[in-house]
Amino acid sequence: MFKKKPTIKPAAPLRSSDRRKLADQIIQDYRLKQPEPADLTPEQKAEATAAHTSLRNALLPDNLQAAKFTTTHGPELKKLNGTVYIGSHDGEETRILWFQVEGRMYPSVYTLWKNPGMVPLLHTPEIVIKKLQGGADLMTPGLAGGPPFPPGATKGAVTAIASTSKPSVPVAVGVCAIHVSALEQVQGQKGHAVENMHWCGDELWSYSPNERPSRQVPEEIEGWAKVLESSGLAEQVGEMSVEDEEDAGGVLLNGSNKSSAADGPTNAPGATPDGSTESGTKAEALDRADAPQLNQKELDNTFRQAFIYGIYHYKTTQPDAPSHGLVFPLSQSSVMSTLIQPFLPAFTPEQSQQMQIKNTSWKNVKKFIKTMDKDKIIKSKEKDRHETVVLDVDFDDQAILDFKPYRLPKKETMGGTALGRGEKATDSIDTGDDSVGQRLQVLSYYRPTSKLQPLFEAGQAGNKQLFTPPEVRELINTYIEQESLLSPTNKRLVKLDPLLGNTVFDGSGALDKEVLAKGTVPRDALIDRVLSAMNKSYAILRNNADPSTIKAKSGAPPKVHITLETRSGNKTVTKISGLEAYYISPRPLADELRKACAGSTSVEPLAGAAKKNEREVMEVMIQGPQKDAVVKALERRGVSARWVEFLDKTKGKKK
């Protein structure tokens, strides 16, 4: 349902009475509280009340906000309206905790992590989980760990789904399409088991009012582990082999492109009982999803080849640049974002998911760099025991000299990562941002002060109030010629008359006294003095706009500020602000940088930047020292380097 981003309206706080009423309805619908005996003592009643209040707060915290949303669902692109409930527990990041559709409340995965046992938990192999995260429904043969299955998994019941590799961590929420609890076997069965509503990785999961990255999926949740143990299901959750999973047909992808785009359920018109469709697109989609799995040796070789490809790319595309365009030392994040990720041959979301450094034998970039150092391809150094940086690269290593480029994905992968772009690492990212490719022109204007106004009137300025520097020069020259003020012996000197003496030179400075004493002034010095005494204004024109249609703003033209800062000890972040003046929307830029740099980004209001009743000024922040990537992204949006101001606050600090 949330594979495509829904339209979410601004959120508003929920009244306490409405929050309590909604929490009580959830407790009733999900049967989270046992009936209380009638003969409770006052102490027992007080304890029960406190427990009930605690349960309410666990489901719906005090800071809960509600927002309306609109999305589409199903093969017919049915338009759905609903409500999302946004809040946080114990100082955690604010997330969507519940969503309501057609009058029914569904918990998000974040809520399930905080409330173990609130819904039945079903299991399926990891390979099926990856397909669920593409919007597929869970088919009956994909069920693992049973029978028997949880007794609450009846038709129409909200249920959670976890991987057999992480049985205590729910990663999807759905609705039972059949009585799963009544199944006596799953092999050989056909049809839907669970209609997938929400999963880790969808737009609801990723939503954050502060543009924060999604929360990491835990390795284990103790509360759910105890639920599984107490119910006797922990021992039943077993692994399925890859062959068994493929034969089982554990998921059903949407039966048409239209349905897939809408992220709808799989009960498309014309579907057969086994989940196939008349169009046959299910088989095609499954073939694409069931890409061959790489073993660890193959995965290690893929990362090594991607790294060599990255070095080869810089060597061949920038042969004359110092170090072929690489700026040393290279941090671990830079190695990953510039030399490895853009050159991984990941053509599908499944391949993107598999091709992660944590799945290699090295497990992290630090160990990978050390291995490349042992192979004498690079020279590295450990810094402060926290990070290993690359000091140099042997561009003449035989592995680089013998390297043969391979095919890379030309477009952004379905997983949303900026993979395989080669020399077009940032140029070919389609951000849907109308500022990409725009043409900008910054015009400087000068407004005469009241003291200078007589000079401009005498120079036949008319009613014009704003002047460009060439226009000021032309007007001064016109006045000089009509008053015959040029020195007969030196055409570069201008004789002062009473008007120039009174309006331009006030006698306060040493230069003024010298000019007034001599009675002459160089023409260029006169024009520069007039310009410096005028009030400055500017206008930024977009796509050859008519200057007369743009209202000039007072002051000097603004700069786009790029700042490097150190946070959390030794972590460097890059901040960008001042984008709005150049018609750049911060959020699409943040999305592009997140993909191009393979690092998390955020967009937040710039503290103290906007005055009351003014438009909020936003600041983009991305992990790592990403100046070059930011400058390149700004150039794509027409921002010249002379309009950018760079500040490195990390210099001189202890690492």
From TrEMBL:
Ranges of residues in domain SUI1: 560-638
InterPro entries, alphabetized: EIF2D, eIF2D_SUI1, Pre-PUA, PUA-like_sf, PUA_eIF2d-like, SUI1, SUI1_dom_sf, SWIB_eIF2D
Highest taxon, organism lineage: Eukaryota
GO process annotations (BP): formation of translation preinitiation complex
Residue span, DM2 domain: 444-533
Residue span of region Disordered: 1-20, 235-296, 414-433
Molecular function per GO: translation initiation factor activity
Matching CDD domains: eIF2D_C, PUA_eIF2d-like
Family (UniProt): Belongs to the eIF2D family.
Name listed for the protein in its UniProt record: Uncharacterized protein
